[in-house]
Amino acid sequence: SGIDDLITRGFGNVALDSRSSWRLGYTSPFGHPVTIDLEYGRFQEGLAGWTERVTSSAKFSVTDGLSVEGSATIQNSDDWLLGDETGQVANYRLRFRQFGVNLLWRLAEGQELSFKAQSYFFDADQGQAVFYAGGPDVDKFNAESFAVGELASQIRYRWRFAPLSDFYLAYMRNGSHYDEMARSKGDVLEAMYQEPNDNLLMAKFRYMF
Fold first, then answer.
1. Which residue in 81, 99, 120, 209 has its CB near the most CB atoms, within 10 A?
2. Is residue 160 very low, low, confident or very high in pLDDT (cuts 50, 70, 90)?
3. How far is CA 176 from CA 6, 96, 118, 152, in A?
4. pLDDT tens per residue across span 66-114
5. What pLDDT does residue 4 have?
6. Distance separating alpha carbons of residues 121 and 98, to the nearest angstrom
7. For the whole model, what pTM was predicted?
C-alpha cells in the first residue's frame, strides 16, 4: 500500500492498496531452427482491479541466410489509471495489442533485404473519475473513451560493394491515430495505413575512401 503523487502531476496523492503480481514463462532451448519465448502475467496496476498480459515471440531460421521473427503482446485491464495535466485522474477498462515482425534475407555476398513492421493500438473506455484530497471536482469531469494506435514499417535493400561502403534503398510507411471514442482494432489499423504520417522512398550512398 502507499500513495502515488506522480499520476496527479503534483496536485495531490492518490491512495493505493497493496498490490500483487505473478508471472509464468517459458523459453525454448537455444541452438534449434525455431526459438520461442512465452510469458503470462497477472498483476495489479490500478486501485484494486487486475491486469492480464500475454507476451510471445518466435524466431525461425529458414536457412543460414533467411530468418523471420515475430512478436505479440495482448493486455487487458479493468483498472488502468490515467492522469492528465489538470490533475484529473480516472481509471479505465484497457484493451492493448502490439504486434511486430522482422525478416532478414541475405540475397548474396554483401547484399541483404530486410523488412520490419510494428504496430500497437489500444482503446480505453468505461472511465470513472477518481477522487483524491486536493484534486479537482470529480462531478465536473467526464472520463471519455478514446483509442490510440501507431504503425511503423520499413523495407530496405542494402548492398555493400566495398569495405565500409554501402548503397541503401528504403521505403517507409508510418502512421498514428487518435480518436476520442473507443473503436475496433481493425478500424484504427486501417486509418493508420490509409492516412500515413510518413510515406517515403529514400536512397543513401556511402563510400569510404
1. 81
2. very high
3. 27, 15, 12, 9
4. 999 999 999 999 989 888 777 788 889 999 999 999 999 999 999 999 9
5. 64
6. 7
7. 0.81
| Cell numbers found for residue 90 | 480516472
The answer to whether 175 and 193 have CB atoms below 8 angstroms apart is yes
Cell of 46: 490500478
Q: Residue 49's closest CA among 20, 78, 8?
A: 78
Q: Is the dihedral of CA 145, 19, 98, 5 positive or negative?
A: positive
All three cell numbers of 34, joined, read: 525455431
pLDDT of 184 above 60 = no
